[in-house]
Amino acid sequence: LVDTPRFHPDNIAPARPGLWRYRAFLPLADDAHLVSMGEGWTPLIASELAGRRCWLKLDHLFPTGSYKDRGATALISRVRELGIRRVVEDSSGNAGSAIAAYCALAGIRCRVLVPAHTSPAKLAQIRLYGADLQLVPGSREATAQAVLAEAQSTYYASHSWNPLFLQGTKTVAYEVCEQLGWRAPDALVLPVGNGTLLLGAAIGLGELLEAGVIAHLPRLVAVQAAACAPLARRFAGQAEENDAAPEPTLAEGIAIAEPVRGGQILEAVRRSGGTFLTVAEDELKQALHTAARRGLLVEPTAAAALAGLRQYLATSDDTCVVAVVTGHGLKAADKLLDLEELR
Amino acid sequence: LVDTPRFHPDNIAPARPGLWRYRAFLPLADDAHLVSMGEGWTPLIASELAGRRCWLKLDHLFPTGSYKDRGATALISRVRELGIRRVVEDSSGNAGSAIAAYCALAGIRCRVLVPAHTSPAKLAQIRLYGADLQLVPGSREATAQAVLAEAQSTYYASHSWNPLFLQGTKTVAYEVCEQLGWRAPDALVLPVGNGTLLLGAAIGLGELLEAGVIAHLPRLVAVQAAACAPLARRFAGQAEENDAAPEPTLAEGIAIAEPVRGGQILEAVRRSGGTFLTVAEDELKQALHTAARRGLLVEPTAAAALAGLRQYLATSDDTCVVAVVTGHGLKAADKLLDLEELR
User: Fold this and answer.
1) How far is residue B116's CA from residue B63's CA, in Å, rounded to a whole number?
2) B105·A295 Cβ contact <8 A
3) How many CB pairs under 8 A join A and B?
């Protein structure tokens, strides 16, 4: 990685658009190859859930409709400055959309592999951005397997593996702490599949702590769908007891049976004093409706985090809890239309 | 309207989120009833079209996926401070989504009438926000007729009629000029149906000019779909010659055969030295693809403006031209999937 200075608020450039106010702390050689649409610096809004105050970070308001743009703008900027002209990526949908969009902006050829059951809106998105889209039958893991062969000969712009992606997603931590007046929340609630948001947030929070900008690490509260909760099971020490195959979940973005950085995710949650929570499909649907009834249209994966937020607030005394809204409901309009309550 | 001071950059509050940096110039009595999700202050990005430089204002990155949130946050804030508990609105989809979302956030009951042919994602949106959704058979005008009876007994939160809505949309002009370093662009290209964006922009630009913050008015370039171009025809003096009923257009957001403020729109365009342009369906589809190939997923109505931008750049010597991207492509994923090129 390109060297970056230790974090300091004086090195922020508030006149630069979006997350690029933190340009100084992003490991890119120069500004000549930045691939940006002015993304980031998303709203952090005060809200209320089950009678408790909380904060929501509106990371669904990115150009492609998910927080993955944080990682894509950093990673594809680096890809461009390295002079790479062609990449391949695998995704459950949102990361593929983000990589495809930023490759389109950069004029880089992009091939995206996704599970065949991915939401139609996400498929339309990826195709329209001009990526070569390949549907892979079977699970998310089948897609992850399929990409490895292609990654032998093509640059693998992986949101799961590539460290530049996490350098982009770390900005969510900068933003939340700055928006709280340079204070760390007591807890940060995130949906976790391959952990690209959680691991990025952990990097950013670690930098802020080391720089003395925040006084403590927030507890990282990692939310998985009960239907597919491999890390929550490992965290609880139940991995051996329950080898059942994952069941389908509306939260397609975190339906990851074998997260590639599982050990790192567990370690980051433990180090923060945080925990894992699992949410049932009914809780997730309820959270989706509750959010919409407050004007926030979120995709089911984001609703999982909000269902986790509700659980957490019910049992914790923390007074400053932030949940990240990761994806826009318009990405899954077909699923939203299918929900019972709409019939 | 509540009195507001003359515009002055010193009265901007840059620490406030989104468009609320311009709180001082929004005619609301106090801050106690603001209904906001931190919306606005959207990116203005440099782009290039047909070999010409231009700017794009990314107003599709609002919570409900369209610029209508500018108007809704202002209007519903006013509705709430007036103590109104129930509203009715009619819309081709996006304004209804915005009003429904902000009413949900404010705890105000909301009924929305839309044409039966509105995009499914927009219907899902409005329903999920908890609005009472009524589909009206026939044209947009049939919907406009149907709402009038209801507006006798319920507060009419109309984006077309209510001046508070335009007070919200005027912030697009503030933002563009501030993002250009307090300079007016030579031209501002906008899609026009009922003109809520154009009329708002004209108000904002007028205030900036009167305050001496900008030195001239930009030309307002109003874009309509050729299939439904009542104002473009009137502007060209052809209204009598062509009484043909409007034809279907992908640009559902501007398929307005009888704009309620048509005279005001024509006057604003004339006063600015601007013009009307019409775009064919093929141009619109082409513009949609061109935008996506640069990482911007826009809805067909927004693509109409980009098609107009291309026309304008081809014939004008203006060097600083801004087009507003009004709605997110994810709002019309069904239509995008239907485009020939995706089959």
Assistant:
1) 24
2) yes
3) 141
